[in-house]
Amino acid sequence: MGLEADCTATIAGRSVAGKARLEDKDLIFRGKERLTIPLASVKSAEARAGRLEVRYAGGSASFELGKQAEKWALKLRYPKSRIDKLGVKPGHRVAVLGLEDADFLREVRERTDDIATTKPKRDTDLAFVKMTERSQLARLKTLRQSLKPEGAIWVVWPKGRKEFREDDVRAAGPGAGLVDVKVVAFSETLSGLKMMIPVAQRPKKK
């Protein structure tokens, strides 16, 4: 979700300074006290007088976030689905390449029936491609040619592998005429990096 703030938290009745971070699956606080709240365990999230008050399975905590408290509370109460985080919209032309994930395909089909699974079509809005080796990054140039000017490629790879990492994907972007704009936890075992054509390289709209 990408929210982060230096703040004072009250945990088990003790106030402590530190940093709060709202991620896809956890609300994390790090200071002299450390706390990780799985979003799935959150029972309520309310903003009161600049404080984010969170009740979760196992306890409660509050965070002094000022004007941002309401924004955090809304994010906790209404978390985005995976398909929303990835930007798949109704009617999008989508390519899903090398991703054997039945749940993901089902989610995509709930948004659009314009899906390619072997070769991306011309003017693709979003291409999802699984990669496991550096040599596969050469495909980015070809995939770029299939995109709409404002389209994107999501490169998806297995987590925790030293031989193929986020840095490898990121480094391949400029050579393929792409810039990285967002990283997500695609699933429990996969990470994803979104890459797009730089605005300066897109055709000018008439």
Walk me through the structure.
- With 206 residues, the protein is α+β, with helices and mostly antiparallel strands.
- Helix content is 17%, strand content 42%.
- The protein has a seven-stranded antiparallel beta sheet, covered by helices on one side.
- The longest helix is centred in the middle third of the chain and has 9 residues, at 69-77.
- The radius of gyration is 20 Å and the shape is elongated.
- The model has no long low-confidence stretch (mean pLDDT 94).
Notable features of this structure?
Rossmann fold; alpha+beta; seven-stranded antiparallel beta sheet; 206 residues; 2 domains
Major β-sheet annotation: 7 strands, antiparallel
Uncertain runs are none
CATH superfamily of the largest domain: Vaccinia Virus protein VP39
Strand content: 35-45%
Give the spatial strand order of the biggest sheet: 4-3-2-1-7-6-5
Helix/strand/pairing category: alpha+beta
Order of helices and strands: EEEEEEEHHEHEEHEHEE
Rg, alpha carbons: 20 Å
Mean pLDDT: 94
Rounded to the nearest angstrom, the distance between the terminal CA atoms is 35 Å
Shape estimate: elongated
CATH architecture label name of the largest domain: 3-Layer(aba) Sandwich
| CATH topology title of the largest domain | Rossmann fold
Please tally the β strands and state the result: 13
Structural domain count: 2
Identify the CATH class of the largest domain. Answer: Alpha Beta
